[in-house]
């Protein structure tokens, strides 16, 4: 069953690649700032769909997102523009296009390495399902959790890492293990054929020409940014 699942995944990716290759401007080069705003469009458009809204203007989106209407039009024009003057944007159509750009329809499969508090919380979150990512496995070295399920995801021994990643056709690995193990585990992952790493270890990972995309997440940095903004706010009130 696992091997069939892997083969189905390979065929699916081949078909998607052929489809993408046939598009002239499917995912053009745009600034990182625009890319970082796209997930916000995704979230707010989902909200509009839940509200039953069929269309929205850039001015309405501007109020929701706290981004200027001009910036919204510029962002969406990077991908060919999806609106009509005097009408605005078709919410479902725009949502579908944003999903395509963000790769929601790829059916990515993910595995979490580290079944501690953070890894367990992430696996139980509905975040992955909402974004089209299927968490198919967790890995840990603790015999106390290996073989058990967290949420609906089974925990496997780290000794099975390479074999399970291959069997399940894993695309993305989420690292939530202690930072001192990050480099050793990453060196194993580079050889597995995965495509991306979401790194919560606090160890900055740079994989060069490996072909693996890395997103380094530093929760402490985000906290310090918040502390700075709070301190600045308090000082301004004096």
In short, what is this structure?
The protein has helices spanning 2-21, 32-50, 58-65, 69-77, 91-102, 117-124, 127-130, 161-168, 182-189, 219-236, and strands at 55-56, 83-84, 88-90, 109-113, 134-140, 149-150, 153-157, 172-175, 196-199, 213-216. The chain is built from ten helices and ten strands. The longest helix has 20 residues, at 2-21.
Features:
238 residues, alpha/beta, Rossmann fold, 2 domains, three-stranded antiparallel β-sheet, 10 helices, 10 strands
What is the CA-atom radius of gyration, in angstroms? 20 Å
Determine the N-to-C terminus distance.
65 Å
The count of helical stretches stands at 10
The CATH architecture designation of the largest domain is 3-Layer(aba) Sandwich
Q: How many separate structural domains?
A: 2
Overall outline:
globular
N-to-C order of helices and strands: HHEHHEEHEHHEEEHEHEEH
Number of strands: 10
